[in-house]
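Record Single-stranded DNA-binding protein, 163 aa.
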Amino acid sequence: MASYSVNKVILIGNLTRDPELRYTAKGIPVCSFSIATSRNWTTPDGESREDTEFHNVVAWAKLAEICGNLLHKGRKVYASGRLQTRDWQPEDGVKRYKTEIVIDEMIALGANTGGQTTEGGKPEESKPEKPSPDKDEEKEQKNKTEENSKPGNEVINPDDIPF
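=>
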């Protein structure tokens, strides 16, 4: 029997530095930046406190290029992805570890103060690209959707009704 687990991270915070866009030896774009998130709470004595956490974030491929071009220090951003820990051993012989959030979705939030504007004040969103279906597939999907949404003479079994 398979066991299930979840590795999902969702953040909304501000960039602490400008993104660093680089390319691997094979020419694959990779962008790294840091997001700060804060949590507020009140102590039992009634004192307000704030704690800020800094998260290392990495984006790959087309999303990396979008992040590198669109984001800047201070920009509020929504990012979701997974945790990944890398390890390496430099010349000093001490094994090092770094935990990062590898994102697969990013939405730039709030006003863009970096000189770029968003259309109609809408947030700028980036998701992994999916291959676009050809026109015949689009028509077929539309027809299936229309067929499924038309009221029919379908017989409903009372046992299928959940109440």
